[in-house]
Amino acid sequence: MRNFVALILVFSGVFLFDQGHSSHQDSSESSGIAVTTPVNTEDDMSASRSRGGHLTSKYNSQNLDLNSEAIRFRDRMNRARRSPGDISAIYEVYTNRKRNGISDYYNPAIIATHVNDFPSIAALLDPDQKLYLLVHGWLGSIASFSSISSFSSSSGKVKDEELADIKDELLRVENATVIVVDWFEKAKDFYSDAKRSARYMAYGLAWLVKTLVEAGALKVSNVHYIGHSLGAQAAAYFAQSLKSILDGQKIGRITGLDPASKDFEGEHLDTDDADFVDIIHTSNGVVKLGMRETIGHVDFYPDGGGRQSGCYIFGCSHKRAKIYYLNSITRCLYPSRWCRTGAYISWFKMRCRRWVSSGGRMGHHASSDLRGVHYLEIDSDSPHCGS
């Protein structure tokens, strides 16, 4: 009887989710390539390639059938018993490309909730620019509340302010595109269920990248995935999916901000998932929220990776990884020392028999040549820079 009730609830949930997407017409199956720019301004039409803007004519001239990609995606999700076109997330696409004469990176240029929205994202990108993917962790949310409320109930959401600030800072200092991936509707479930749902979220994201790369709108080496906690571990699912559908290709960089430890002992983010994988460990203490183990090309352990300076409440250290990354963009240098020999864990902290100066930096400006275990001390006072 219990299984029968559960089955009814599952089918009911799928039905309701489909109703939430009923406004999406399958124009992809009834017309040609539906690649559109979201704004019609003179600024956009005259935007130089250095500012982004591969427009409709580019795709038409190459006869790119992006809509066939959407159909194939829906077929795969159907086989996985997911709703047709379900990307298991909201994608908010931000760019500092000029609109109406000004750069507006506080408001999304596109809000995508369905695979049919992918062609419009392609029209925004410049393949020579970076694409950042920001992914929150368990119980988190990052999208603006206006787009969340139009997609589903926003009750109980706690916005990830640090990742939102990272988005703003990246767009303030770089010509780039940032896609904020909000998967709260799945991440709010029990941890084991959220971990399972992270696979579907990551698969949808991999399919987006595949679509953009094959459209000529994106170079896979220019993709930088930044995830926190469970969102960091989901990068492994994303990478595995992308390799399976894009001829083994890998993105340029994955940054894991204190990747979740629970249930990831046997499977986790590692160096096979991107050309460069850098990890910041900040909560290896008694209550181990993040992984203690080295899993990247370079693993940074500020304050030894244990309780962070100035943190006295639960979750503070786990959040610090995001704060350090935000500060590293323009505010703090975070010079690190390399453990030349004898790295080991003692009293919940990474220790070393011989630390040497490396010339390396933790965070956004970490060199892709860095390898091994790195350490730095953190100031207890805000803004928590390091030395």
TrEMBL record:
<feature type="region of interest" description="Disordered">
    <location>
        <begin position="22"/>
        <end position="60"/>
    </location>
</feature>
<dbReference type="GO" id="GO:0016298">
    <property type="term" value="F:lipase activity"/>
</dbReference>
<protein>
    <submittedName>
        <fullName>Putative pancreatic lipase-like enzyme</fullName>
    </submittedName>
</protein>
<dbReference type="InterPro" id="IPR000734">
    <property type="entry name" value="TAG_lipase"/>
</dbReference>
<feature type="signal peptide">
    <location>
        <begin position="1"/>
        <end position="22"/>
    </location>
</feature>
<comment type="similarity">
    <text>Belongs to the AB hydrolase superfamily. Lipase family.</text>
</comment>
<dbReference type="Pfam" id="PF00151">
    <property type="entry name" value="Lipase"/>
</dbReference>
<keyword id="KW-0732">Signal</keyword>
<dbReference type="InterPro" id="IPR013818">
    <property type="entry name" value="Lipase"/>
</dbReference>
<dbReference type="InterPro" id="IPR029058">
    <property type="entry name" value="AB_hydrolase_fold"/>
</dbReference>
<keyword id="KW-0964">Secreted</keyword>
<feature type="domain" description="Lipase">
    <location>
        <begin position="127"/>
        <end position="365"/>
    </location>
</feature>
<dbReference type="GO" id="GO:0005576">
    <property type="term" value="C:extracellular region"/>
</dbReference>
